[in-house]
């Protein structure tokens, strides 16, 4: 086989891998992200992704999937259709650490009146974190909004905890990463990049 033909075949193989079914749209720190996922029977597009870092330590990779791309959190919160926030752990965490970080994110982005309206849902989510006990590097958590169902969580592909029916609760979760006081401003920019 001559060199020119081999290079042509190799280029074709690379393109087939890049654009074939199940191809990853992006990769960050070895975590491959799909360019689309199905949630609630609908296809969602990768809106943005980034790394949550605390000082120099990598904590998790976060990605946001939406029915259509957007760079505006208010627009995202009004969207019809399902949505997904996916987290891939980059280090081991206890459920207490993860739960505390979740609560801190809510507290920074919600006023007392907003928290009072979803206090029952927050409590249910706290019970879910207690079920996890330890989160290991490589574990995957999906936080999905499914219209007509509610906020549903999956941990390594298995549904966990109770479904929370209120859209206000899911939008409060989004504000942890994309609200006025996000856990990481660089991560907020990455998730809302719409690229």
From TrEMBL:
InterPro entries per the UniProt record, alphabetical: Chalcone_isomerase, Chalcone_isomerase_3-sand, Chalcone_isomerase_sf
An example Pfam family from this entry, by short name, is: Chalcone_3
| Segment forming the signal sequence | 1-25
Where are the membrane-spanning stretches? none
Q: Cite the GO molecular-function annotations of the record.
A: intramolecular lyase activity
- Gene3D superfamilies reported in the protein's UniProt record: 3.50.70.10
Q: Does the keyword Transcription apply?
A: no
* Positions in coiled-coil regions: none
Q: Where is the Chalcone isomerase domain?
A: 25-192
Keywords attached to this Swiss-Prot or TrEMBL record, sorted alphabetically, are: Lipoprotein, Membrane, Signal, Transmembrane
Output this protein's name: Lipoprotein transmembrane
Origin organism of this chain? Massilia atriviolacea
- Organism lineage string: Bacteria, Pseudomonadati, Pseudomonadota, Betaproteobacteria, Burkholderiales
């Amino acid at each position: 086989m001559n060199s020119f033909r081999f290079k042509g075949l190799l280029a074709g193989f690379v393109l087939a891998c890049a654009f074939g079914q199940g191809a990853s749209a992006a990769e960050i720190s070895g975590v491959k992200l799909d360019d689309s996922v199905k949630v609630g029977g609908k296809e969602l597009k990768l809106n943005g992704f980034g790394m949550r870092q605390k000082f120099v330590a990598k904590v998790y990779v976060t990605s946001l999937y939406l029915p259509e791309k957007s760079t505006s959190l208010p627009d995202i919160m009004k969207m019809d259709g399902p949505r997904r926030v996916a987290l891939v752990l980059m280090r081991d965490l206890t459920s207490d650490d993860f739960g505390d970080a979740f609560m801190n994110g809510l507290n920074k982005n919600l006023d007392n009146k907003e928290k009072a309206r979803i206090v029952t849902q927050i409590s249910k989510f706290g019970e879910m974190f207690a079920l996890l006990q330890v989160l290991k590097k490589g574990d995957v958590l999906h936080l999905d909004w499914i219209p007509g169902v509610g906020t549903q969580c999956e941990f390594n592909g298995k549904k966990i905890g109770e479904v929370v029916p209120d859209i206000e609760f899911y939008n409060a979760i989004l504000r942890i990463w994309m609200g006025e006081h996000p856990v990481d401003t660089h991560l907020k920019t990455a998730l809302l990049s719409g690229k």
